[in-house]
Amino acid sequence: MVSLRLPFAVLAVLVAALMTPSAVAQLRTDYYAKICPKLETIVRSSVKQSMAQSQISGPAVLRLFFHDCAVRGCDASILIVNSNGDDEWRNSDNQSLKPEGFQTIMNAKAAVDSDPQCKYNVSCADILALAAREAVYQSGGPNYPVELGRYDGRLSTRDSVVLPHSNFNLDQLNAYFSGLGFTQNEMIALSGGHTLGAADCPFFQYRIGTDTTMNSAFADDLRKTCNSNPTNGFAFLDYSPVGFDNAYFRLLQGGRGLLGSDQVLYSDPRSRNTVNAYAANQAAFFADFMNAMTKLGRVGVKTAATGGEIRRDCRFPN
Ligand code: HEM
């Protein structure tokens, strides 16, 4: 019964330490101010170059960040390439992640490491968090401050990948996101990430002609798209796939949400008010999206004390 003999003050500190998520507490927007003062400028210009080279880069990076944070936390485990082939990115749910997203992070990491002060001092997880913000900002979205100080994880396995599916209903979406600590509102704001990018036919084709919430003219367009290109057909998640705006929510109001998990946010009366609010007010969507992205960036953050490290090559643990 050692604990009973501890002075109250010591006990109080210990309890507080256990209750405070210390890994989260260490995140700060100025974490690299002395370690790598030019970090944000370097990542900004590198991501800008990648986005100029390919319009897929922005959407791909934003999705990559979500798929990283949702599995084992924001620790860049999605970037690990294990020699035995057992890693997150080889899970079937990650096979549609675009190579441009990975390449954008590799380019940004190389740019960061070309500064002698920064070399091997910035985690891949932080570079990914910054690049995701750039994808949003450089597409016309908000320029929100990014908390930094994450360490990179050392583990990545195929079986650890659990991600939401495009046929999820509202209860399934809520169950998944509440498991990561998000409210329904925050889940809807994060789904607004689908203002960027595209989806391949297999993710929505099953809805055409069967899902009555789908606008019929939209269904006709999608049918043509997928029938004319059965192997590589795709459609944009929003009219303006490289512009970050609230058009996604207006599309949902018109039955033009591409994925079932998008459209259900409007079809289900329990979430419709939030969709309407974001459709009417882009500033409200931007504010909630920024907060939800900051919260996403705190999921499962690693420290040196919890086995994290600053990876030298984002693909391989040191
Ligand atoms: C709500 C649950 C979600 C589901 C079911 C879902 C599912 C999907 C699917 C099926 C695709 C198409 C993949 C392809 O065909 O290549 C996609 C694309 C995308 N997702 Fe999600 N997603 C969800 C949440 C999110 C969140 C929270 C974000 C980020 C904040 C996000 C960002 C993106 C982006 C940017 C794309 C486009 C990627 C590209 O064009 O390469 N998604 N998502």
From TrEMBL:
It is found in: Secreted. Its cofactor is Ca(2+); heme b. This is Peroxidase. Substrate binds at residue 164. Ca(2+) 1 binds at residues 68, 71, 73, 75, 77, 88. Belongs to the peroxidase family. Classical plant (class III) peroxidase subfamily. Belongs to the peroxidase family. Ascorbate peroxidase subfamily. GO terms for molecular function: heme binding; lactoperoxidase activity; metal ion binding. Binds 2 calcium ions per subunit. Binds 1 heme b (iron(II)-protoporphyrin IX) group per subunit. InterPro entries: Haem_peroxidase, Haem_peroxidase_sf, Peroxidase_pln, Peroxidases_AS, Peroxidases_heam-ligand_BS, Secretory_peroxidase. It is an enzyme of class 1 (oxidoreductase). The gene is ga14514. Ca(2+) 2 binds at residues 195, 238, 245. It comes from the Eukaryota. One of its GO terms (cellular component) is extracellular region. The record marks 63 as: Transition state stabilizer.
